[in-house]
Amino acid sequence: MTSGRFWPRDESLLRAVVDWSVNRIVDGQDPMTAARPPEELLDEIGDTVTAGGIGGAEALRLFTEVLVPATRAQDDPMNLAYVAAAPTEAALVFDLAVSAAEIFAGTWESGAGAIAAENQALSWIASLLGWPAAAGGCFVSGGTMGNLSALVAARSGAETPGVERAGRWMFAASPAAHSSIGSAARVMDCDILEVAGDGRGRMTGEALSAAVAGLSTDDRARLFAVVATAGTTNAGVVDDLAGVAAVCGDNDVWLHVDGAYGGAALAARSVRSLFDGIEGADSFVVDPHKWLFAPYDCCALVYREPVHAALVHSQFASYLEQLDRSEWNPADYAIHLSRRARGLPFWFSLATYGTDRYSEAVETVLAVTRGVADEVRLRPFLDLVMEPDLSVVLFERRGWSEEQYQAWSVENAVSGTVLCVPTRWEGRPVLRFCFVNPDTEVERVARVLDSLAD
Ligand SMILES: Cc1ncc(COP(=O)(O)O)c(C=O)c1O
């Protein structure tokens, strides 16, 4: 410990935290770790926030021995529930460096170096979209915040001073859009024009066109945007982006593409054609913390013409007057001001391994998905619900009830074999695997499928 500073320095504690972190990155986390009842946890950790403090060594012990084991191993290759994560070692360890550098990355003035690197990562994404070099945006916490920020920018672009509309603003989306889209509508006090999906839940240009044509003149004036999904959460289906973009162009409405989960597949040549038409979108989100191998929390939000976002998101006040507005201030492009340079672990990983390796990693995950879909087809007691577009496999166990799916899911979670939670397709319970980890092996998943035979 040293004196002469307010907070005592304990270098051995700093090293212990770093050592534990590096070991966690190298060894991974036991897949049997799981949530525990709050009373049990509180009982075990006792009062940790006390007048005198419990000391860093004890807090670290509780974290490593009690708290982390009460969290789910998101990056385990057999975590196939929800949308898991598979950050690279480089990305994970760099998150420590980003913390240590303590960068305020809301404004260029304070975060220039970090923002320059983040912007290169965003430019790579914009290049995958086929967007002009002027495209740009910022990193936000997740798809939920990215979708909301983009829709707020879209609405602002549609506003004409002095022009009143009869009723609330409205955007179009399909029922398969992520729950964050409904949340955005509630926050923005907007209506949603529901556009029915096709047999796979895919929004088509035809269905969108019919929905828009059915609007009264007043309602048409309320429509400011369409949300298409590039990789639905439940089924991994990509909307008919070309058809939807054409209808948006014809009607002069903003097209936002939610690629929070599936946008990663833009990097994969084998499925790139599914994204045709995305070059016509106005805003886009993808979560590197999902399938682009970065740690939480990291969503890339990109605008084709960022000025629309800056017009509504820039914050002004006397204490902000000195900011240079001609520089790239990430605070201008989403609902935030202070921000961590949360795109840097993603940037570091991209810089370390290269974009070719990234493409290969996404292709590997797609190949695993196709391999697992084949394994499902081989088993007479299973039915594949649909051919996977991306990396979600929906399938049914013939004759099983909801309770049987649930019991099987819990049993496998408890044994640490696989995390797979049932979902619904057209109202009936089905199983769902979502792959994001290039280390997931088809053979291991095939053994899991065998366990469904009994
Ligand atoms: C398509 C889609 N959009 C948005 C989200 C929300 O992203 P986040 O959880 O990062 O807020 C998700 C999450 O799974 C998603 O799959």
Notable characteristics:
454 residues; 16 helices; 3 domains; Aspartate Aminotransferase, domain 1; 42% helix; four-stranded antiparallel beta sheet; Aspartate Aminotransferase, domain 2; alpha/beta; seven-stranded mixed beta sheet; binds pyridoxal-5'-phosphate
Percent strand equals 5-15%
Low-confidence stretches: none
- Helix content range of the residues, please? 40-55%
Biggest beta-sheet profile: 7 strands, mixed
Q: What would the average pLDDT be, to the nearest integer?
A: 97
- Would you state the CATH class of the largest domain? Alpha Beta
Order of helices and strands: HHHHHEHEHEHHEHEEHEHHHEEHEEH
- What is the number of E strands? 11
**CATH architecture classification name of the largest domain:** 3-Layer(aba) Sandwich
The CATH superfamily of the largest domain bears the name Type I PLP-dependent aspartate aminotransferase-like (Major domain)
Number of helices: 16
What spatial order of strands do you see in the largest sheet?
A: 1-7-6-5-4-2-3
Supply Rg. Answer: 23 Å
Query: In whole angstroms, how far apart are the ends?
Result: 61 Å
Question: What is the number of independent domains?
Answer: 3
Would you give the CATH topology of the largest domain? Answer: Aspartate Aminotransferase, domain 2
